[in-house]
Structure formats: structure tokens, C-alpha cells
Amino acid sequence: MDYSIIYLLTAVVLCFLMTWGVGANDLANVMSTTMGSKAVTVRQAMLIAIIFEFAGAFLGGTGVTETMRDGIINSSQLSGQPLILIEGMLGVLLACTIWMNLASYLGVPVSITNALVGSMVGFGTVVLGPHAIHWNQVSRIAISWVTSPMISGITAYILFTSIQQTIFVKSNPLTKAKLYIPIYLFLIGSILSFITVFKGLNHFNIHLNFKQNLAVTLATSIIITFVGMIIIKRIPEHHRIRRRERFIQVEKYFAVLMAMTACAMAFAHGSNDVALAVGPLSIIYSLVMSSPQVFDANNYPAWIILLGCVGVVTGLLMYGRKVIETVGSAITALTPSRAFAATLSAATTVVVATSTGIPVSATQTLVGAVLGVGLARGIGALNLIVIRNIFMSWILTLPAASILTILAYKLLHAFLG
Hints:
membrane; transport; transmembrane helix; phosphate transport
């Protein structure tokens, strides 16, 4: 009896459950600054997550999916043993499902990137041995887990400090805000348009040269800037107000910037983490739907990405509250201006890394940016106990995912093999 379809259906169910955990944890972390700063309503935040998560996954996620499929283990050694590879990918999905949902239950933000890399290393080691692992690629990814939160944290520190010095400490912060907000809007537009133009157009077989790409990016950024300015001008102004009330008015401006930056962050998360999460399912699909001799993990249908997006959004809607509270308010108090500095810095880091095919962690990148904003206000503004717990969960993720995958594979191999 051919069990291929059963394997595929099992993988589909596990992939949905895993991406559900990704939504309750990873995507909840991404939206935490938006909701923690109260820049938008819950309904608006959910709408942003749905639209831009889907857009990011479909337009910008190919590179990191290829890295996960081909960059961690030498899967060509298993080309004649498709069942072992299927069992391994089922083990990866099961292990990551358990870990992501456990972390979501505990309210601790962990990274699906870390979990998947750890799982792939565990599977490759137990089946092929350590020599089959592409340790150079693993090291490159692991280094990015350290450098990406550091880079986003430093960027957020500098950005928020500059916002304080150029706007909030001035005698007329409203006037200064109107001067600098178009610059920030242009930066947001550049991030949103960069990955769409340089990577997304390939999905529609549209290939532009560098000058054309640059022209489209600039034009899109300018349009987004004008749209943002129109929205900001609709905010009612009160000319005779006290100094404290001027700060509140400035924060209203930054709430608009924060909402637009949340779009960029959700887009970046979809282009990186969602595409990464469906990697094991895409491998199983390719093995089941084609012969091992013509195995091509790059050829998989759009419904796999769609499944990942639906799972992620469902997880956020149903169980994202705990992680949102941890990152959005427990690490440090966030206002729209602070959240804007953190989210813009994190989105920039993730988009640049994704464009080079490096699967960085959106979770770690955003937490690093939030820490940077907190440090700009002094060490006393940070909840060190919460930070310690988050760091411990990051350290435990890779070995825990590896061990869970090894156990899951052995059970599946004993049952199926």
C-alpha cells in the first residue's frame, strides 16, 4: 500500500499546527510593539498582520526557504532514501510544533528560525552523521542570531536618541516633528518597496535592471511618504496647548508612523519566518509528488505558503496575547515614538538580511531593538528579570529542538520503517 498521500496529509496538519504556534509566538512578538504602544486598535493591528504577512510571504520569501531546504544538511545523500527524508521532515515539524506552542503557552518569545535550524541539525546528525551538516552555513546563520539583535538594538538606540534630541527636547516639538516626519515616512516606504521591487517582481517574471529598480523604489517611497503626510494632516491640531499636551500631539503623529512601520515589520516577518516555516512541508511535497530521481524542492505550489500564512494569522488571533504582553509592555514601557524607533530598526535589519538569503530571527531582532530603546532611557527602564527569561529561552531553543527532533524521528522511523 502506498502511504505517500498519508505522509503528505500528516505533514500538512503538522505544518498548520506549527505555524499556528509561530503566529501565537513569532507574529505576536512582531505586533507587540504596535499594540503595546497603543498606536493602533486591536482590530487595526490584526488587519495589518493579515495583509502584510501574506504579502511578505508571497513576494519575498523564496531565498530563505531555499536556504533551509538546501543549506543545513546535504540532503542529496538521501536522494535514494525518500522515506527517511520524509520521516525526518515529519520529525522536524513535530518537534517545532511542540516547542513553539509550549513557548507560546509560557508567554516566552522564541524564534522559529532557531527551532528549525536546531531541528535540521538534529535530524542530519542522527541520520547522516555530523559530517553531513553544512557547518559553515549553520555558523553563518548562528552568527546572525547574535549580530541581528545587536545591530537592530544599536540602530534603535541611535534612532530613538536622535528623535529625542531633534524633537522632544526642543521648545516647539510640534514644529520639529513636522520637519522630520517626512524623512521617517520615506525610510518606511524604502523598506516596504525595497524587497518588493528587488525580489517580489521576479514572481511575476518582471526583471528590471538596477536603475529601473532604483527608480521604482524611489517612486514608491515618495508615494508612501505623501500618503502618510495626508493621514497625519487629518489629525486635529490645537495651537494653544500646554507643553505636556504638545508631547501627546507629537505621539499621535508617531502613532501614524508606527502603524506604517508595523506594515513593514509584518511584511518582513512574512518574507522571512513564514517562508522558512513551510520548508519541511515543501520537501515532503516534492518527494511525494515526484520521483526521488527528479527531486526538486524548489518546485512547490502556492498553497503551501498560503497554508503557512493562514496558520500564522490564526495563531496570532487565538493565542497571541501572552507574548504580546511580554514584549509590548513587560520589557520596557513603550510609547508610539519608542515603538516606532524599535520596529523600524528591526524591520530594516530583517529586510536587509532576507534580501541576502540569511534567515535571521524576527523575534530576536525586534527584542534587541526594544532593548536598544530601553537603554536609551537608562538601564532602570528595563525589566531585567523578563530579559533574563527571554535570553534563557533563546539559548535553550536550539538544543531542545534538536533533541525533540531526534526523539520524534526515532519514533516515526520505528513506526513507519
